[in-house]
Amino acid sequence: MAFQPIVDVAARQVVYYEALVRGPDGESAGTILGQVTDDLLYQFDQACRIKAIELASALDMQARLSINFLPNAVYEPEACIQATLETSQRVGWPTERLNFEITETERVQDRQHMRNIIESYRAMGFTTSLDDFGNGYANLDLLTDLRPDTLKIDRDIVMHCNRNPRRQAILRSIVALANTLEIQLVAEGVETREESRCLLNIGIPVQQGFYFARPQLEALPVIDKALFD
């Protein structure tokens, strides 16, 4: 696992660390996921959760931990969460500091199944995020059925927002929508100070990207406080 911080620029602090799967030689998540067959999906999902929690505890992480999961790997939320709960108890990780990030929404044919996962996790005290909002399948229609705690705005909308009025207009619309639905926003893929300042002025202080830190293998990246200025 590698960890990448999600920061609140206004509060000048790390609020989450996202756990990102990597290969034994640092191979990307896409490379690893491409090798996971459907019959191994459940075991892979469970192993990633356990590894992320164990490492977060070993690294003395103080922020919330965001774990990616594949909705199709969850056949029944209460049953599939047991290994996560057992691991949290074993290493002393507070379960209220767990966030589950929904990935690969295009592979979910049963929207009710995803809704059941989100509602079940909320009832158990977890929070959930919807990844890559505004790109591909993670679009507005999902919000007619789903109630995630957080929307992560895709890099395709964020990039060059500081010099693109159309992107700024779209981002302001997303802020208004999120405020109405009482959903927090995270801007993904922030790579420059100018993008970060623009997002903050639009009303999106919670941000993630290479501007703050690249994912670091089995370690917590140190954030230069000057990046918040």
TrEMBL record:
<protein>
    <submittedName>
        <fullName>EAL domain-containing protein</fullName>
    </submittedName>
</protein>
<feature type="domain" description="EAL">
    <location>
        <begin position="1"/>
        <end position="229"/>
    </location>
</feature>
<dbReference type="Pfam" id="PF00563">
    <property type="entry name" value="EAL"/>
</dbReference>
<dbReference type="InterPro" id="IPR050706">
    <property type="entry name" value="Cyclic-di-GMP_PDE-like"/>
</dbReference>
<dbReference type="InterPro" id="IPR001633">
    <property type="entry name" value="EAL_dom"/>
</dbReference>
<dbReference type="InterPro" id="IPR035919">
    <property type="entry name" value="EAL_sf"/>
</dbReference>
